Amino acid sequence: MGYLRELTDLTPEEWELLCSRMGDVMVRVARLVLKVVALSLAVAAVVCAVIAYWDQLPKLRNFGRNKVQKETISAEYVDYEE
Questions:
Q1: Which pLDDT does position 45 carry in this prediction?
Q2: Is 50 inside a domain boundary?
Q3: Does 82 map to a domain?
Q4: How many domains are contained in the chain?
């Protein structure tokens, strides 16, 4: 009960200062919570996208591999005349 008695003995100026500091802390906590929620939603969206396009991932991988191979092959013969 000592803590409660100390709060009741505060002057109005001290009480205002305490409330403003508590408000700052609550705003920081709220921002942290919102960042955690946003991050978890982003991770969930990525997981859902991977699950939704699971059957098309090998095609995408092969497309990228073929494109890189074509670019390397064409770059090797740029200086040769036909």
A1: 97
A2: yes
A3: no
A4: 1
